[in-house]
Design goal:
The complex is a heterodimer of chains A (114) and B (888).
Chain A: H1 7-24, H2 29-39, H3 50-61, E1 64-70, E2 76-82, H4 84-113
Antiparallel strand pairs in A: 1-2
Chain B: H1 2-16, H2 19-43, H3 48-59, H4 62-73, H5 76-94, H6 96-125, E1 136-142, H7 155-164, E2 168-182, E3 188-195, H8 199-202, E4 209-210, E5 225-229, H9 230-236, E6 247-250, E7 253-261, E8 275-279, E9 299-304, H10 310-327, H11 329-332, E10 336-341, H12 342-347, H13 351-382, H14 384-392, H15 397-433, H16 448-475, H17 478-484, H18 493-529, E11 539-545, H19 554-570, E12 577-581, E13 591-596, E14 608-615, H20 619-623, E15 627-630, E16 644-648, H21 649-655, E17 665-670, E18 673-684, E19 699-703, E20 711-717, H22 722-736, E21 743-747, H23 748-755, H24 757-791, H25 793-801, H26 806-839, H27 851-868, H28 870-877, H29 881-886
Parallel strand pairs in B: 3-8, 5-7, 14-19, 16-18
Antiparallel strand pairs in B: 1-9, 1-10, 2-3, 2-6, 2-9, 4-7, 5-8, 6-7, 11-20, 11-21, 12-14, 12-20, 13-14, 13-17, 15-18, 16-19, 17-18
Helix pairs in contact in B: 2-3, 2-4, 5-15, 6-13, 6-15, 6-16, 7-10, 13-16, 13-18, 13-24, 14-17, 15-16, 18-24, 18-26, 18-27, 19-22, 24-27, 24-28, 26-27, 26-28
The chains are: A alpha+beta (114), B alpha+beta (888).
C-alpha cells in the first residue's frame, strides 16, 4: 500500500496542478514541478516525484489529459493539459477553497480580537 | 461521484491490461524528468555527477515512485491478495505437519457440524412438504392436569369447532389404521386414513387422477369413495389409467375409486407407505364412533388464515373450548383446546435432543478454533523474526495482518473443503445410525442449504481462530525481536496470555461437553438398568395377523390361535408360550376409558383410563409377571363364563386406594370387545408398556378367549435359539394355514433395544463429541505447556545450575498445567451447570446437577491436564544446564 498522505496535502497538490495547467497550458512533469516551486516561492519543498501520484489521480478522474511531445531539449516528454471537466472541477474547488479560507480567516480574526 | 466511477473504471481497465508498457512509459517519463533536473543543476554550476545525484534526491526514490505509480494505476489490493495467497500456500507447503494438523482439526470440527446440521435441518428446520406448511397447525384437546396427553377430537366436537371457528381457513380430522384390500389379486393390508373431506383442501393438494373428496362425500349415506395414493395405484393396480370408477373392497365393503394422489403427498402417514383415504364415516371399524362425543380419536389439522396470529387463534379456541365444556359437560368439562405447529406433530420430542446435539458440535467447533488459534499463535512466535524483518523493511501493520489473515483463510478454506467432504461421508454414516423413531419427512443429505451452512461456519471459524493471532503478531515490537536475535524468546506477553486464555477456554468448554456426556451416560445406564416388569432375556415374539376376509368372526380367530398355541406348546422346549395384544414396549399401550361399577361415573375432567391388554392364561408365567393378589386367568375363562379381568398394581393403587379391588367390577371396551362389567380376579405386577423411561401406567388384562382379536403376538419363553424358535413357529403356522405369512419375529431384547434407541443414539453421539473435545483440549494444554517449557529452557538451566532439584522443576511445570486446568474448571463449572439444565428433560434417574458426574469430569480434566504436560515436563527435566546456558 502507498503510504497515506494527509487528505489536505493530496487535495491541495491536485488543485495546484490543475491551476498550473490552466494558467500555463500544456506542461510536462518537470515543468509543472518547477512552476509550483516558483509560485510557492520555494516554500513548498516536496519531492518532485510526488507530482506523478497527483497526475495519475487526475488522469483517472478525467480532469487532465496527456500526450507525448518534445521538450525544450528536444527529448520525448509527456505533456499534460487540463480538460473541460478539469476546469469545472478547478472552479468548484477554487470557490470551495476560498470559502473555507475566508471562514478560517474570520474565525482566526475573532479569536485574535477576543 | 461520476469522477469516482470513472476513476474506478480506469483502475479496473489498468488492472486487466498488461503492466509492462505502462511501467516502461512511466520509467521513460521519470527518466526525462531526471534529465531536466540534472541540466538545471548543471546550469547552477554543479559538476555533472553531483548534478545528477542532487537531481535524484529532489525527484525522490525512483523505485518507490514506480511502485506508487503502479499501485495508483491499478487495483493494488487485488495484487497483494493474489500475492498473499500465493505466499500463504508456499508457507503452508513448507510446514506440512502444521498444515495437516490445522486442516484436520478444522475439517473434523466443520465436518461433524455439517453432518449434524444436515440431520437437524432435514428433521426439524426444513419446512414440511406441504404448501405454506408454516400455516398448518395441529389442534388438540387437553386436560390441564394431564398435559402429556394431547387428545384428538370426537367427530361431533370437531364439527362444532369447525362451525364456530373463524381463525382457520379449514380444519380436517383424520384417524389411521389398517384394513384388508381385496378384489384385486392377493388380499393385502393397506394403511387406511379415515379423513373428513376437507383434508385435501386444507393441505392444498391436487389429485394425480380423478378428484379429491367433496363435502358431500362426508355426509351420512354418501356412496363409499376411496382415494388411492400413487404407491398403491402403481403397485396394486399397475398404474391402471382407467382406475377411476373402479371398485375395490376394504374389509368386504365396496368402495369406488374417485382419485389418485401423487406420491409426494402423504398424511397422516409418512411418505412411501401404501396409503388410501376414505371418508371418516365409511370405515367399517369406526362408523359406530361417529356419534360418540366422548371419543377423542380424530387427529385434527387446521390451516391458519394468513395474517391471523397464533394468540388470536388460541384465544378463539379457548372460547370454543369453554362453550363445548358448558354445552356438553359430561364429555367436555375440564378439556381445553390447544394447538401447535404441525411440524411438532411429526417431529415431537426429537427436536430438543437434536438441538442439544447441534449445540454440542458447535462447542466442539469452538474448541477446535481455540486450538487452531493456539497453534497459530505458537507459530507466530517462531515467526516473530520474519515479521520483524518485514516490518523493518517497511511493511505496515495492516499489511502484515492481511498477510497472516490470508494464511489462515487458506487454511480455513482447505479445512472447510475437507470438512464438507467429511460431512458427505458422515451423513451416510449417521443415516444408518439414526433410530427409526426419528421421523424423516425430508431425506437427510448434504444439499445447498447444508452446504451454505458449512461455508458460513467455515467463515466464522476462520474469523474466530485467525484474527487474534494475526493482530498479536502484528503488534509485536520489531526492534525488540530483532535485538533479541534468537528465534525462541520473542513471544509477547499478550500472545502468552492469549494462549493461556484459549487453553483455559478449551478446558471450560470441554467440561460442559463432558458433563453433558457424563449425565447422558449415567442416565442411559440407569434407563437400561430399569426392569420393564417382565422377563426379556429369553423371549421371542412373532406377529400373527389373520386376513379378515378369510377369518371373519371372533370364533374363527380364536379357533386359529387355540390351535396354534397348542401346537407351539407341544414343541420341545417351548411349553412357555402365550398370546398377547398389544405386546409391551413393542406396540406401546392402548389407552381406553374405564368405569368402576357401583361408583358414579367420573367427570370428563377426571375420567379414568387404563391400558388394555388381551392375553392368554399362560401370558403372565411366560413373561414372569408376578401375581400380587387373587388369581391369574385359566383355560376355563372363556366366552361362556363370567367376564373377568386382572389389573396391575398401579391401577389398584390409583383407582382403589385403601381398598381390596378383588371382587369389584370395572367396565371398559375395545373396538372388538364391548363394554361390559368385568370382575377383578387378580392383581399383577406393573409393566412399563410404552417406554422404559415412563412410569408404569394403570393396566387391565382380559382373557384372550373372552376378547379375541385378528392380530396378536405369540410370545415364547425358551432357552432355544431364536432361529429354532422362529422355525418351529413358522412350521406350526403353515401346518394350520399354508398361505399365512408370519411377519416380524423378534427377540424381546431387540425390542427393548429399539425402545431405547433414541437415548442411545444421542448418548453415543454426545460421548463422541465429548471425546473430541477432550482430545482437543488436551492438545491445547500440551501446546501451551510445551511452549512455555521451551521458552524457559534457559531459565530452567539457570535454576538447575544454581542447584534446583528435578522435583522443584517438575513442580514448576505441573503448577502451570494445574493452574490452567483449575482456571478452566472455575469457568467451566457454572457453564456446565447452565448447560445441563437444558438437558434435564432428557435425563432419567439422574439430576442435572449430579455431583458424581461433575466430580468425575473435573478429575478427568485435571488428570488430562497433567498427562498432557507429561511430555514437556520430561523435556524440562532433561535440560542440561550447560547446553541451556550456552544456547543463547
Amino acid at each position: 500500500m502507498a503510504p497515506e498522505k494527509s487528505e489536505i496535502l493530496q487535495g491541495t497538490l491536485d488543485l495546484m496542478v490543475l491551476r498550473t495547467l490552466e494558467s500555463m497550458g500544456p506542461l510536462h512533469g518537470y515543468g509543472m514541478a518547477r512552476r509550483i516551486e516558483q509560485v510557492s516561492e520555494e516554500a513548498l519543498s516536496i519531492n518532485q516525484g510526488t507530482i506523478y501520484a497527483a497526475l495519475v489521480r487526475l488522469m483517472q478522474r478525467g480532469y487532465i489529459s496527456a500526450a507525448w511531445g518534445a521538450s525544450d531539449n528536444n527529448r520525448k516528454a509527456k505533456f499534460y493539459s487540463i480538460t473541460k471537466s478539469g476546469r469545472k472541477q478547478l472552479n468548484a474547488e477554487t470557490r470551495n477553497w476560498e470559502r473555507i479560507s475566508a471562514v478560517i480567516g474570520r474565525v482566526l480574526q475573532l479569536v485574535a480580537k477576543s | 461521484m461520476f469522477a469516482t466511477l470513472r476513476s474506478l473504471a480506469s483502475k479496473i481497465r489498468a488492472w486487466f491490461s498488461p503492466r509492462k508498457p505502462a511501467d516502461d512509459e512511466f520509467a521513460q517519463e521519470l527518466e526525462g524528468h531526471w534529465e531536466l533536473l540534472t541540466q538545471e543543476n548543471v546550469r547552477r554550476g554543479m559538476d555533472p555527477q553531483e548534478a545528477r545525484r542532487a537531481a535524484r534526491i529532489r525527484l525522490g526514490g525512483l523505485t518507490q515512485l514506480k511502485e506508487t505509480n503502479r499501485e495508483a494505476r491499478g487495483l493494488a489490493f487485488l495484487d497483494t491478495l493474489v500475492q498473499d495467497i500465493r505466499y500463504a500456500f508456499r508457507i503452508l507447503r513448507k510446514n506440512p505437519g502444521f498444515t495437516a494438523v490445522c486442516v484436520l482439526t478444522l475439517a473434523l470440527g466443520i465436518g461433524v457440524n455439517t453432518a449434524i446440521f444436515s440431520v437437524v435441518y432435514a428433521v426439524v428446520l426444513k419446512p414440511l412438504p406441504y404448501p405454506d406448511s408454516q400455516q398448518l397447525y395441529t389442534i388438540f384437546q387437553q386436560r390441564p392436569q394431564d398435559a402429556s396427553v394431547q387428545a384428538g377430537f370426537s367427530y361431533l366436537d370437531l364439527q362444532d369447532v369447525i362451525a364456530q371457528d373463524t381463525a382457520f381457513s379449514g380444519m380436517t380430522g383424520v384417524s389411521a389404521h389398517e384394513l384388508t384390500l381385496t378384489g384385486h389379486g392377493d388380499p393385502f393390508i393397506v394403511r387406511v386414513s379415515d379423513v373428513t373431506p376437507d383434508l385435501f383442501s386444507v393441505f392444498e393438494q391436487q389429485p394425480l387422477l380423478g378428484r379429491v373428496f367433496r363435502p358431500e362425500d362426508g355426509k351420512p349415506g354418501a356412496a363409499h369413495a376411496v382415494i388411492l395414493n400413487e404407491t398403491v395405484w402403481r403397485s396394486v393396480f399397475s398404474a391402471d389409467p382407467n382406475i377411476i370408477g373402479a371398485s375395490i373392497n376394504l374389509d368386504k365393503r365396496v368402495f369406488t375409486v374417485v382419485g389418485v394422489m401423487p406420491s409426494s403427498f402423504s398424511f397422516p402417514l409418512l411418505s412411501g407407505t401404501r396409503e388410501v383415504w376414505i371418508p371418516v364415516g365409511q370405515d367399517p371399524m369406526f362408523e359406530s364412533w361417529m356419534n360418540l362425543r366422548g371419543r377423542h380419536w380424530l387427529l385434527t389439522t387446521g390451516r391458519l388464515k394468513p395474517g391471523v396470529s397464533l394468540a388470536e387463534a388460541q384465544a378463539e379456541l379457548d372460547v370454543i373450548g369453554q362453550r363445548l365444556a358448558k354445552q356438553f359437560p359430561a364429555e367436555n368439562a375440564g378439556w381445553e383446546i390447544h394447538l401447535f405447529p404441525l411440524q411438532r406433530f411429526f417431529v415431537g420430542d426429537v427436536r430438543s435432543p437434536l438441538l442439544v446435539l447441534l449445540s454440542a458440535v458447535a462447542l466442539v467447533l469452538v474448541i477446535a478454533c481455540a486450538n487452531l488459534a493456539n497453534l497459530l499463535l505458537t507459530r507466530a512466535t517462531s515467526r516473530t523474526r520474519e515479521i520483524a524483518v518485514r516490518t523493518a523493511l517497511g511493511a505496515g501493520r495492516g499489511r502484515i495482518v492481511r498477510q497472516l489473515l490470508s494464511e489462515t483463510a487458506v487454511l480455513g478454506v482447505l479445512g472447510g473443503a475437507a470438512g464438507i467432504f467429511l460431512a458427505y461421508w458422515g451423513v451416510n454414516a449417521l443415516g444408518s445410525l439414526i433410530p427409526e423413531s426419528v421421523p424423516q419427512l425430508n431425506p437427510i443429505r448434504v444439499d445447498h442449504v447444508v452446504l451454505f451452512f458449512a461455508l458460513a461456519i467455515s467463515a466464522v471459524a476462520i474469523f474466530l481462530f485467525g484474527l487474534a493471532p494475526a493482530f498479536l503478531a502484528a503488534k509485536s515490537d520489531p526492534q525488540a525481536s530483532l535485538r533479541e536475535g534468537g528465534t525462541r524468546s520473542g513471544e509477547s506477553i499478550g500472545g502468552r496470555r492469549a494462549r493461556g486464555i484459549f487453553a483455559g477456554a478449551e478446558i471450560a468448554l470441554a467440561m460442559v461437553l463432558l458433563v453433558a456426556a457424563g449425565l447422558l451416560i449415567r442416565s442411559f445406564s440407569k434407563l437400561t438398568a430399569v426392569s420393564p416388569g417382565f422377563d426379556t432375556a429369553h423371549i421371542v415374539k412373532a406377529n400373527i395377523a389373520l386376513p379378515r376376509d378369510q377369518y371373519r368372526t371372533p370364533q374363527q380367530w380364536l379357533a386359529f390361535t387355540d390351535d396354534l398355541l397348542a401346537r407351539v406348546q407341544a414343541e420341545p422346549g417351548m411349553q412357555d408360550a402365550a398370546l398377547v395384544v398389544p405386546t409391551p414396549l413393542a406396540d406401546g399401550g392402548i389407552r381406553v376409558p374405564l368405569e368402576i361399577v357401583g361408583q358414579p361415573p367420573a367427570s370428563a375432567a377426571e375420567s379414568r383410563t387404563g391400558n388394555y391388554v388381551a392375553a392368554s392364561p399362560n401370558y403372565f408365567r411366560v413373561m414372569r409377571i408376578p401375581l400380587i393378589a387373587g388369581r391369574f386367568f385359566t383355560a376355563d375363562d372363556v366366552m361362556s363364563t363370567p367376564r373377568i379381568t386382572c389389573i396391575s398394581a398401579a391401577m389398584a393403587r390409583v383407582y382403589f386406594p385403601n381398598q381390596n379391588p378383588i371382587g369389584k367390577q370395572i367396565s371398559f371396551s375395545f373396538p372388538s370387545d364391548p363394554s361390559v362389567p368385568r370382575e377383578i380376579v387378580g392383581i399383577v405386577g406393573d409393566v412399563r408398556d410404552s417406554a422404559l423411561g415412563e412410569e408404569p401406567k394403570p393396566m387391565m388384562y382380559v382373557p384372550f378367549a373372552q376378547a379375541p382379536f385378528w392380530g396378536s403376538d405369540l410370545v415364547v419363553n425358551s432357552t432355544l435359539s431364536t432361529a429354532s424358535v422362529a422355525g418351529a413357529i413358522r412350521k406350526d403356522v403353515i401346518a394350520i394355514d399354508k398361505d399365512l405369512p408370519v411377519g416380524d419375529i423378534a427377540k424381546m431384547t431387540d425390542v427393548l433395544a429399539t425402545n431405547v434407541a433414541q437415548p442411545k443414539f444421542r448418548t453415543e453421539l454426545l460421548v463422541l463429541f465429548a471425546a473430541m473435545a477432550l482430545v482437543l483440549a488436551a492438545t491445547g494444554i500440551f501446546g501451551v505447556i510445551s511452549c512455555s517449557v521451551s521458552r524457559r529452557t534457559r531459565e530452567i538451566g539457570i535454576r538447575m545450575a544454581l542447584g534446583a532439584s528435578r522435583n522443584s522443576i517438575s513442580h514448576m511445570v505441573l503448577r502451570e498445567a494445574l493452574l490452567l486446568a483449575l482456571a478452566g474448571l472455575a469457568v467451566g463449572v457454572p457453564c456446565a451447570f447452565a448447560a445441563s439444565r437444558l438437558l434435564s428433560h432428557m435425563l432419567f434417574g439422574v439430576s442435572a446437577n449430579d455431583p458424581v458426574t461433575l466430580i468425575a469430569v473435573a478429575f478427568t480434566l485435571v488428570a488430562v491436564a497433567v498427562i498432557a504436560s507429561f511430555v514437556p515436563l520430561r523435556r524440562a527435566m532433561r535440560v542440561d544446564p550447560i547446553v541451556a546456558l550456552r544456547y543463547e
